[in-house]
Amino acid sequence: MAQLSPLLKQATPVVVDHGEGVYLYDTNGRRNLDFTAGIGVTSTGHCHPKVVAAAQEQIGKLIHGQYTTVMHKPLLELTESLGDVLPEGLDSLFFANSGSEALEAALRLSRQATGRPNVIVFHGGFHGRTVATASMTTSGTRFSAGISPLMAGVHVAPFPNAFRYGWDEATATKFALQELDYLFATMSAPNETAAFVIEPVLGEGGYVPGNTEFFAGLRERADRHGILLVIDEVQTGFGRTGKFWGHDHFDVRPDVIAIAKGLASGFPLSGIAASTELMAKAWPGSQGGTYGGNAVSCAAAKATLEVIQEEGLVENAAARGRQLLDGAKLVADKTPQIGDVRGLGLLVGSEFTTADGGPDNATAQAVQKAAAERGLLLLTCGAHMNVVRMIPPLVVTAEQIDEALAIWADAV
Ligand code: PLP
Questions:
Q1: What tens digit of pLDDT does each residue of 286-297 get?
Q2: Taking CA atoms, which of 43, 151, 164, 324 is between 20 and 30 Å from 345?
Q3: 249 lies in the same domain as 224
Q4: Which Gene3D superfamilies is this protein grouped with (predicted)?
């Protein structure tokens, strides 16, 4: 008799039987509104018929083609489809399986292409759980505790987290950029820095959006010093924020993007995109993996892209996101324990604070539990797990948002 390792810590007691759209049906026959979407993955809803059909058809033809041995049609077709949505100039793709692997790939590319050792990451960023990506993660000590020595060459600069600093956005941004220059002067000289690695919206770090001025400051410094700007779109890509890419909100040009989650509706698939010129500066054949670019995942991803476009999911994320943010703000107005509500599109967080403004993780987690008991599944995030986040599938309707907000108000 085997059992699951305590290495896994489950946020809810739910055991799922099947999923459909925004609902997860558990083994007790209960219908749960899934506002976690498998941590921002199942954007097309659980088991979207078009994605299921594409995957089923592919399974009967070829499951695994191993892309360093042979090339296969689903990978080539997906590459072509992604060409229509990738940021301008990022026309070269490399595929892997998970978000962490995509960030590892971006790190390797950055170091090889520049010949420089250091990367600069930003306070509250989350980039994965492998040792290298955990070394680049500062959204909470839990991701790197007990695994030292971490990867060398990682330096941390502030993210303009206005609420946590207790400042306005402009002051927080000015401070963050000045600290970045101070870091250049002390810890990571520009000519030793390969890349900035940053999320458009801090995800695990508490759902904190960046801003246009800050990203303009990063872009300017990147251009001035020959540093690459790697934008981690793992959680924010594919329409999640109400624009196709999270960084589209900030009018900034990335050199590399990392993609995963919303790419394939739950099939494991990730990747990086960069210009052909930049990819050519890395060492050919230095990246790969047995399962990267799996044929069934690629077929599902191509269908996912079609669903996102045909069903207007980016526009829906923008409209339903406004509804969700407004509704969550109304609840916060009546709740002194909620210090801030923020987000972009269908990525909304409510931060629970104590009377002195500190993080209140006990209340956040009690509310998350109360919501789950009422049939609304939610996750927490933030360094102290005191931000309750809502990330429903992008197919969510206005009625389902209202239903979730009513449960949320009751749980709070
Ligand atoms: N980057 C970001 C922004 C993420 O949110 C995540 C996962 O939550 C990752 C990277 C790591 O992805 P994975 O868990 O698939 O390795």
A1: 899 999 999 999
A2: 164
A3: yes
A4: Aspartate Aminotransferase, domain 1, Type I PLP-dependent aspartate aminotransferase-like (Major domain)
